[in-house]
Design goal:
Znf_DskA_TraR, 4 helices, mainly alpha, Four Helix Bundle (Hemerythrin (Met), subunit A), metal-binding, 106 residues, binds zinc ion, zinc, zinc-finger, Znf_DskA_TraR_CS
């Protein structure tokens, strides 16, 4: 039954699109502040960290949406195993299964 797996993917796609939009807006706003005198009330390091994090979210969500369009979304990029839906619901832009993610960062 393919109809049962389509729906969560649609939800994840909406979630990713919203996240992508939000991060893009956030990045634009933060970039604007970084050009203002006094960084719009932020200290330099905090602003730099926020920009880096927003930029990363933009690139991760864009990557996930691209994989969705290609039909390779939801499989681990390293070992090609299906990433469990519960993991994708928590982390929609997950690129690796949990064991591979641990090896990646550890
Ligand atoms: Zn894996």
């Amino acid at each position: 039954m393919t109809s049962t797996v389509q729906e969560p993917i649609e939800l994840l796609r909406n979630c990713l699109e919203e996240q992508f939009q939000r991060s893009t807006d956030q990045l634009a706003e933060l970039t604007l502040r970084s050009r203002q005198r006094g960084f719009g009330g932020y200290d330099h390091d905090t602003l730099a960290a926020l920009i880096a994090s927003a930029r990363q979210t933009v690139s991760e969500t864009a990557h996930a949406l691209k994989r969705m369009a290609e039909g390779s979304y939801g499989t681990c990029e390293r070992c090609a195993v299906d990433i469990p839906l519960q993991r994708l619901e928590i982390l929609p832009h997950a690129r690796f299964c949990v064991p591979c993610q641990c090896r990646q960062t550890g």
